[in-house]
Amino acid sequence: MLGLVKHGMGKSGKGRRTAQCILEAAAELLIDEGYHSFSLRKVSARAGLTIGNLQYYFPTKDSLIAAMLDETIGEYLKRFEQIRDSTGPDPIEQFKALIEMIIRDLNRKRTTVFFPELWALANHHVHAVDLMDDMYEKYRHVLVEVMRLINPTLSDAQLHRLALFISCSIEGHTMFIGNGKRWTYETENIVAMAAKSFLWLVQSGEVPE
């Protein structure tokens, strides 16, 4: 529970459980009602807490959003680590497995709705933009690590540019192959094409300096 530790919510078992309940309620509210309905009062009601109790853990909306994003990226980073460990030492296989997992994850309802609502939230809350940038930077860092192993000749600038391109490309698929979308059935074809094309870019080094 990376987000809970960072925000000081891990001091006791009860405190962790309460904070986790709040974060889950916040995510569910964002998914069910959208960013325009996102408020501490509504989150507290959904979590079955008073507004004062919620604010003991998360005094402001910004602190709650920060913890929610930390928790989200923490879960993904754990999954990335598990994939790399289970795939074996070959960085090419690790890279393909990561790309496949990230794209297939778009099929989950939670992913399909949660992230676009976060983007919408960031359009209206300046601080949320910085928080989301930080979250995506941690995600791209994993891609950079693996791509560096595949092609050590790529410069730092090329690696970060390519990681950004991959991230943008995958996120853009959400509206087309996400849960319940018209082209969801094409997911495995998209996975195959994306893994091949992204790997070609890494191996060829055809990335702008």
Polypeptide structure, described:
The chain is mainly alpha-helical and 209 residues long. The protein has a domain at 62-204: Orthogonal Bundle (Tetracycline Repressor, domain 2). It has 11 helices and no strands. The chain has helices at residues 2-6, 13-33, 40-47, 51-57, 61-87, 91-105, 109-124, 126-150, 156-172, 174-177, 187-204. Helix 2 packs across helix 3 and helix 3 (40-47) packs across helix 4 (51-57). The longest helix is centred in the middle third of the chain and has 27 residues, at 61-87. The radius of gyration is 18 Å and the shape is elongated. Residues 1-8 have low confidence and may be disordered.
Give a brief rundown of this model.
The chain has a domain at 62-204: Tetracycline Repressor, domain 2 (Orthogonal Bundle). 78% of the residues lie in helices and 0% in strands.
CATH architecture of the domain at 62-204: Orthogonal Bundle
Distance between the termini: 37 Å
Shape: elongated
What is the tally of beta strands? 0
Give unreliable regions as ranges.
1-8
CATH topology of the domain at 62-204: Tetracycline Repressor, domain 2
CATH class of the domain at 62-204: Mainly Alpha
**Helix percent band:** over 70%
Structural class given helices, strands, pairing? mainly alpha
> Main beta sheet, described?
none
The secondary-structure element order is HHHHHHHHHHH
**What's the overall average pLDDT, rounded?**
91
Beta percentage is under 5%
Number of helices: 11
- CATH H-level superfamily of the domain at 62-204: Tetracycline Repressor, domain 2
Alpha carbon gyration radius: 18 Å
